[in-house]
Amino acid sequence: MTITVRELAYYPVKGCAGTTVDSAQVLGTGLAHDRTFMVVDAADGSFRSQRTHPAMAAIRVGVLDGGAALALTAEGVEPLRLDADGDGARRDVSMFDRPLGLAADQGDEVAEWFSDALGVKSRLVRVVPGFDRDGWGDTPGKVNFADAHAVLVTSTASLDDLNARITARGDAKPVPMNRFRPNIVLTGDDEPHFEDRVRRMLLGTVELAHSTRATRCAVPMVDQATGHRAGPEPIRTLSTYRREPEFNNKVSFGAKNAVVCEGVVSVGDVVEVAEWLGA
Question: Which helix (H) or strand (E) holds 244?
Fold first, then answer.
């Protein structure tokens, strides 16, 4: 079967709404503009997430002027245009209790905006020039403010299989792909979770290499349109067949990849699997 790129998306502010595109520049840290900004606790610099602040999902972020500015909208607050500042005051930030180093604070106006939108004192930070963070796994690669890897890949076959299992229970509705916040969605192979077995793939002028399966937390239970928790699906059903013993029995959906060769990828591009895991 011919595998092709079905969807592309990047997430300018970690945890906030994504932007779907027809074509994307892919850098060593992932799709251009992906998770280059992050909302943090104003007091200690720890990152904010949909895990504890599901309303982040409904904060819309538009990238303007090639990343020089952001357009921010959310229910209950006035829209804001932010001129991004790579030279802002440096602030120590952390993720999962691990220090990430220094990030560029984006100022008081946007800090107040996010504080109002989320109901907790927050700051917005940006990766600084020269930011250098390693991923981990089979191919670690580099990463901005994503959890730990540059590119999350899912497939329509995996979602179709999951939704068939959900609807078979008779008490829940199918879930959309955006619950998993992928960067690249593949289609054309009807084997669920074939993306797990791809060691190396070529798409457009980009080469990706497998890092690890994507284990999931509570975020897929957040309705990405409303910013409200809407569980127990899909985690309840995934837990019946996608447990990962090597990762403390967490459930998985999708595969995390590192960027081996930068380039451009577009919706409709044919994907060449250059190497399969276990082959």
Answer: strand 243-244
Long-range contacts, stretch 67-71, CB < 8 angstroms, 24+ apart: 67/32, 67/33, 67/36, 70/12, 70/13, 70/37
Q: What is the pTM of this model?
A: 0.97
Burial profile 16-28: b = 16 or more Cβ within 10 angstroms, e = fewer: bbbbebeebbbbe
Confidence category of residue 104, pLDDT binned at 50, 70, 90: very high
Q: Write down the pLDDT at residue 20.
A: 98
What band does 263 get if pLDDT is binned at 50, 70 and 90? very high
Nearest Cα neighbor of 232 from 245, 218, 214, 246 is: 218
Q: Shortest CA distance to 175 belongs to which of 243, 230, 242, 250?
A: 230
Give the residue carrying structure tokens 């179709």: 160
- CA 131, CA 104: separation in Å to the nearest integer? 11
- Kindly give, in sequence order, each residue whose CB lies less than 8 Å from that of residue 205, ignoring residues fewer than 6 positions away: 261, 263, 264, 265
CA distance linking residue 46 with residue 98, whole number of Å: 9
pLDDT in tens, 4-48: 999 999 999 999 999 999 999 999 999 999 999 999 999 999 999
Planar angle of CA 251, 252, 258, nearest 5 degrees: 145
Which pLDDT tens digit goes with each residue over 203-253? 999 999 999 999 999 999 999 999 999 989 999 999 999 999 999 999 999
